[in-house]
Design goal:
Blueprint (H helix, E strand, L loop, with lengths): L1 E2 L8 E2 L1 H6 L2 E6 L3 H10 L7 E7 L3 H11 L3 E2 L4 H5 L6 E4 L6 H10 L3 E4 L7 H13 L4 E3 L7 H11 L6 E11 L15 H17 L5 E7 L12 E8 L3 E8 L1 E12 L2 E6 L8 E7 L2 E7 L6 H13 L7 H20 L3 E2 L34
Parallel strand pairs: 3-4, 3-6, 4-5, 6-7, 7-8, 9-12
Antiparallel strand pairs: 1-2, 9-13, 10-11, 10-17, 11-12, 13-14, 14-15, 15-16
Helix pairs in contact: 5-6, 6-10, 7-8, 8-10
Protein name: Glucose-fructose oxidoreductase
Family: Belongs to the Gfo/Idh/MocA family.
GO molecular function, one term: oxidoreductase activity
């Protein structure tokens, strides 16, 4: 596999990767999500993806997981050493939100492709810097939106495209859980906050279901006095106005019962998803149309393997992924506007943003769920 190197470094050919048609990944950040979902997903993605290195700020965690997965480990201060390994073609960035941009740009400048967890960054300018660095160094950038490959959510996209709800008008959603602290999700300097962490799911779902971009947004954020939330908001309530009379509203909270649901209402029907955003468990759906009700469920699947497989295919075939870096930027600019609205207590208008690429039903992939491995020095974010 050919991989461009920036600066004075010459282009190097990854003969081992090319021979096996596998992309070698370094996973950067070994928190709960990385250990529970990302690392096990390489088992189902082994046709074109393989884990070749780990990067962590915790030496004990790195050593234990390096031994378990039989790969070399590096500290954050050794990131460039990791990138210099011949086996490393790409990185999967699972760091705190505030670190995404720095490590993505460093990887791109070293010639490594970048798969980055959402939100892509915490400012629009950081997103643009990431996109620019990847373009200048001829590497791919993908935002890790796992639901762009998930059955129930893509069936919802299909229902809208086929007009089963008539003209879609309303999107409402609730996403909440009880956050266990200490946790980076409640630390301002780590890019924490309920809108950044789980609000992004609601924003992204509304955009791909309406297949358009909001033109105006308004948000309330609530600081309840709970000692868990001294630096970031506990909850937020949002309204987004889209063209053609479409409205989206959602509530997110780190201090409420675990709920992950959305409802899409059109002129001729409605669609309701339960467990809509979760990485584990089945997703139940209810479709009401013309006086008839249908119910079903999409079984629990490995939602991370499709990301790896799709990104590796894009690298091997030299094409841009969906979702790309611009998809990540589209959500970051909205969330930034929501925080601006919460502070000013006024609606915020958004400049037009052209997005022609959306998730489509043919992106669906089905892989059995992974088993939760033994976790090392991490705890689940929820009670």
């Amino acid at each position: 596999m050919a991989r461009r190197r920036s600066g004075t470094r010459s282009t190097q050919r990854r003969t081992s990767s090319k021979a096996s048609r596998q992309v070698g990944y370094a996973v950067v950040g070994l928190g709960h999500f990385a250990q529970e979902s990302i690392l096990p997903a390489f088992t189902h993605a082994r046709g074109n993806s393989r884990l070749v290195a780990l990067v962590s700020g915790d030496p004990r965690k790195a050593r234990a997981l390096g031994t378990k997965y039989k790969v070399p480990v590096f500290g954050y201060e050794q990131f460039e050493e990791c990138l210099a390994l011949p086996e490393v073609d790409a990185v999967y960035i699972a760091l705190p939100n505030s670190m995404h941009a720095e490590y993505a740009v460093r990887a791109a400048r070293a010639g490594a492709h970048v798969l980055c967890e959402k939100p892509l960054a915490t400012t629009e300018e950081e997103c643009r810097e990431m996109i620019r660095a990847c373009a200048e160094n001829d590497v791919r950038l993908m935002t890790a939106y796992r639901l762009h490959f998930e059955q129930a959510n893509l069936q919802a996209v299909k229902a809208v495209r086929e007009g089963k709800l008539g003209e879609v008008k309303l999107f409402t959603s609730t996403f909440s859980f009880q956050l266990r602290t200490p946790n980076i999700r409640a630390e301002a300097d780590k890019g924490g906050g309920v809108l950044w962490d789980i609000g992004v799911y609601c924003v992204n779902a509304a955009r791909y279901l309406f297949r358009s971009e909001p033109i105006e947004v308004f948000a309330f954020c609530d600081w309840s006095g709970d000692p868990r939330f001294l630096e970031t908001e506990e909850a937020a309530s949002v309204v987004m106005r889209f063209p053609e009379g479409k409205l989206a509203a959602f509530n997110v909270s780190f201090g409420a019962e675990a709920v992950a649901t959305y409802r899409l209402v059109g002129t001729e029907g409605e669609l309701h998803l339960e467990n809509a955003y979760e990485v584990k468990g089945p997703i139940h759906w209810t479709l009401k149309r013309q006086g008839k009700t249908r119910r079903g469920k999409a079984p629990s699947r490995d939602q991370l393997a499709p990301e790896l497989i799709t990104f590796s295919d894009c690298i091997l075939e030299g094409r841009e992924p969906e979702p790309d870096g611009w998809e990540g930027l589209a959500d970051v600019r909205i969330i930034s506007a929501l925080y601006e609205s919460a502070v000013s207590r006024r609606p915020v208008q958004l400049e037009p943003l052209a997005r022609t690429r959306r998730p489509t039903p043919d992106q669906e992939q089905r892989h059995p769920p992974t088993r939760t491995p033994e976790l090392v020095l991490v705890q689940a974010p929820s009670h």
